[in-house]
Every structure is written in C-alpha cells, then in structure tokens.
Amino acid sequence: MENKKINIAIHGGAGTILPHLLTTEKEKAYRDGLHEAIDVAKKILLDGGTSLDAVSAAVMSLENNTMFNAGKGSVFANNGKHEMDASIMDGKSGLAGAVAGIAGVKNPIALARLVMEKTEHVMLIGNGAEEFARQCNLPFMNEEYFHDQFRYDQWIAIRDSDNVQLDHSIDKKFGTVGAVAIDKYGNLAAATSTGGMTNKKYGRVGDTAIIGAGTYANDATCAISCTGHGEYFMRHVVAYDIHCLMLYKNMTLVDACNHVLFKTLNAVAGEGGLVAMDKDGNAALIFNSAGMYRASLNDAMEIVTEIYK
C-alpha cells in the first residue's frame, strides 16, 4: 500500500550554538552540508526509495563532511584516536543494527545497516565490528582521512585533564548526526552516527549506538534520532520513551517530545535535542539547548535549514 506523504528531517548536533559564535563562512558551510544531506535523501524518497535508504544516505553525507562530528569529522578520544558509534532501525520490521568504538571505517552507518541486514545480532563493537566490515568489503580510510586540525588542537588543549568537551566547533556542541524519514509505503526509519566527545575515555560509548536511547523507529508510532549529552539520553531511554508516550498515553509526537526534553531531561539538566517523525509523516525538530543544526522539508517539499532557536 502506498502512502502519499513522504518526509525526512535531519540534525547535525545540538548545543550552545549562538549567532555571534559562528562566522558567516562557517554558518554557510553548516547550512550547505545540511542542505546537501537532506537533498540526497529527498531524491531517494521521491524516486520511490525506502525510508531506510533515505536515512542511510543522509547520515552518510553528513559523515563525509568534516563540519560534523561523525565519520570524517570525528573528534579525538583521550588516547588520541577516533572511536565512532552508529545505529539504524527499521520501523516496519523492528530490526536494528549498531556499531560502537570502531576506527577506520569510512561510513559507520553503512556498517550498522549491515549488522542489521546480514547478521542475527543488533550490536558489534571494536575489533569484531571492524573485522565484519572487512568481510563486507566496506571502505576503510587511514588516520589522515579522519584528522582535522581544529579537532586535534581542541583535544591537545585538554588531553592532560580529566575534562571531556561536548563541543565540536567554537561552540559547545553535542556532535552527533541523524535522520528520520517516512517513505511512500508509510514505513519509518531512523539513523544516528557520532564521533563522541573530545577527550572521552577510551572505550566510552554514548546513546548513539544504543537502540531505544539515541535511535528508535516503530511504524505504529514514530522514528527518533537524538543528539545531546548521551549519558542522560541513555539513563532516560529517550527515544523509546517518546514511542511509549505515544503508544500508551496517546500523546501527539510534539507533546511526547516536549515532555521528554523539557520535563524529564530538564529535571536532570540533560541537554540536547532530537528529530522525530510520526506515522502520518509529521516531523518534529525539538531541542532544549541554545541551538541545533537541522533541516527539514516544508509543506511545499522545499528544504529548510535552521541553526538557532
């Protein structure tokens, strides 16, 4: 059965993103990156492609852009290495795939999807995940590919401390990228990818790789991709909680997202945001931080990119 409404929404991270902190050039680079990612996904949906294909393509585009903390633009952990996490979920089948603590894989979201489609597992980590990527002939890149001088300088500044930095630009920013979509068949999907926190402890995994915390999709309710201080999103199972509020309390998507972000998370000073899509193709892009890099389609199917509140 075909559903007439297709839609997609994406994010490139949330945090203290204020107009005076971004140069005109940097703001344009962020908006261009968001526009390019959502445009790729929009074309897939218009051509009759699946929501899974759309969210995969959007996240891959953001992973390939050094402006965003995922894939190529990943930050440095406290051992001076890049450790990336990603997950994806299919709202139709309920299947999901995730990877955590991986290095060298060009597109972590592609690997997460293969975990979902080619194994009986949900999550693979570290060396095991990387070995599976080689078996699947996914492209690997050397450390130079992932090296960004700005990220490196940022790490050098705090590497001798116990601090972790949640920023990835000149602003305090939770660097995660994600997408949610609905295709013409009415199926939802969500995907999320991240390089984590600057100077994070070796082996730290955040909400991005955790199904139900940072990523969730169910055709009965919604698809969610989160960005923020991952520990809070994990403790409060944010993505799944929104699904539950819709399923069991009959809340609308916006009401459920607002409840979790502004009541549950605000109560514990958990900062961040999310993009969400309900089963009718309505999108919500909501955050309790100063800003969130985000893009969506308006009623005329035109791309709208936004950064600030």
Largest sheet: 9 strands, mixed
CATH superfamily: (Glycosyl)asparaginase
Helix count?
A: 9
CATH class: Alpha Beta
| Oligomer status | single chain
- What's the total count of β strands? 13
H and E order: EHHEEHEHHHEEEEEHHHEEEE
Q: Which band does the percent of strand residues land in?
A: 25-35%
Describe the protein's topology:
Layout: E1 7-16, H1 24-46, H2 51-63, E2 84-90, E3 96-102, H3 108-118, E4 123-125, H4 126-135, H5 143-146, H6 149-158, E5 172-174, E6 176-182, E7 188-194, E8 215-217, E9 222-228, H7 230-235, H8 238-249, H9 253-265, E10 272-278, E11 283-287, E12 291-297, E13 303-308
Parallel strand pairs: 3-4
Antiparallel strand pairs: 1-5, 1-6, 1-12, 2-3, 2-7, 6-7, 8-9, 9-10, 10-11, 12-13
Helix pairs in contact: 1-2, 2-3, 8-9
Summarize the structure.
The chain has helices at 24-46, 51-63, 108-118, 126-135, 143-146, 149-158, 230-235, 238-249, 253-265; strands at residues 7-16, 84-90, 96-102, 123-125, 172-174, 176-182, 188-194, 215-217, 222-228, 272-278, 283-287, 291-297, 303-308.
Task: Give a written overview of the molecule.
This protein is of the alpha+beta class. It has a single domain, classed as (Glycosyl)asparaginase (Glutamine Phosphoribosylpyrophosphate, subunit 1, domain 1). The chain has 9 helices and 13 strands. The strands form 2 sheets. Strands 1, 2, 3, 4, 5, 6, 7, 12 and 13 form a 9-stranded mixed β-sheet that branches. A 4-stranded antiparallel β-sheet has the order 8-9-10-11. Helix 2 runs antiparallel to helix 3 and helix 8 crosses helix 9.
